[in-house]
Amino acid sequence: MPIKKNEYVIDAACQKIRVALLADLHRGPAENAVSILKSDPPDLILIAGDLYESPPRNPIDVSAALTLLAGLPAGVPAFYCRGNHDHSHEETVDAALEAAGVVELDSTYRTLENGITVGGLRSAFYTGGVPDLEFLFDFSRLPGYKILISHHPEYYPKYIRALPIDLTVSGHAHGGQWAIRGHGLLAPGQGLFPRYTAGIYEGRLAVSRGLSNPVPVPRIGTPREVVYLTVGQ
């Protein structure tokens, strides 16, 4: 199934900005995503985890990540927060992130020139299952419009929804793998008939179907995608 560019508009009290959301590259391929980004450069790139795969769940595979990072459009601010598969650092990827000017956010945040603040809530898959709540609370108290990168959409109802965080961007669900009448069938962390698999929820959560199909089960009705979000007024 070919990769798609899907676009959404989010009404928000901030300066208008066009954001590209990337997630779940895993083992790739990356060339189609690079082509989309270069043909239509956004104002901001957010990478919501599983950029590559590392032990113990899978052998190291960073080739697609290196292709994607080398192909990002020059001059576009880009931020990355780890998921459950890319939880360990790999020297070649760290060097590629630095060369591409991609800033990793791990319980940290950056404020852009337009006043929007981007933070990263790292996956807690290997650290007890509960994310860094202290950072999350501190981030939520910051002034201005706040965008949180959180690989796991299932964190949203548990930890994020009640906080004054304007927008959360996620992946992980792979669109539910099979879509039945527009609803995903199965997603990690959410089980059967998951709630958060693709698109916009409550105007505050954007979930990407991801850039690859990392499992042997084929996708049905859940195309790989690059998500573009037009945020603001």
Descriptive account of the structure:
- By secondary structure, the chain is of the alpha/beta class.
- It has one domain (4-231): Purple Acid Phosphatase, chain A, domain 2 (4-Layer Sandwich).
- The longest helix is centred in the middle third of the chain and has 10 residues, at 91-100.
- A six-stranded mixed β-sheet has the order 1-16-2-3-4-5.
- The chain has five helices and 16 strands.
Secondary structure layout plus pairing:
Layout: E1 4-10, E2 17-22, H1 31-39, E3 44-47, H2 63-71, E4 78-80, H3 91-100, E5 102-104, E6 109-111, E7 117-121, H4 133-140, E8 146-150, H5 155-160, E9 167-170, E10 179-180, E11 183-184, E12 186-187, E13 191-192, E14 199-201, E15 205-207, E16 225-231
Parallel strand pairs: 1-16, 2-3, 3-4, 4-5, 7-8, 8-9, 9-15
Antiparallel strand pairs: 2-16, 6-7, 10-11, 12-13, 14-15
Main attributes of the structure:
6-stranded mixed beta sheet, 233 residues, 16 strands, Purple Acid Phosphatase, chain A, domain 2
Compact overview of the structure:
The protein is of the alpha/beta class. It contains 5 helices and 16 strands. Helix content is 18%, strand content 26%.
